[in-house]
Amino acid sequence: MEELLVWLTENLDQQFSVTELAQRMHLSDRTFARRFRAATGTTPTSWINSQRILRAQTLLEDSQLSIDEIARETGFGHAVLLRHHFHRTLGTSPASYRQAFRGRVLSP
Fold first, then answer.
1. 44, 49, 68, 103: which has the fewest C-beta neighbours closer than 10 Å?
2. What would the pLDDT profile of 21-31 be if each residue is shown by its tens digit?
3. Is 1.25.40.10 the CATH classification of the domain at 2-101?
């Protein structure tokens, strides 16, 4: 499962179905979903969305990309979907997050 998680993290801009991921692991959908949850504690969709949010946070903090570009880079596709998931997860908008955290350096 670790190899798949690394691959997913490197390919967040793509769209995946559980069936495609299960096939990649040579498992049935149900077996894959069960093993994925055992390994990560969550569903494939929830895990992918949380990784996409983490990637969006990094891009908002460290890049000049627009919200639309970040949505595409992180696999949400459209800014409206990024805003929806971002607000649902973090309780703020991507623009507000960027304003608060851009270029922030954490002290050691």
1. 103
2. 999 999 999 99
3. no
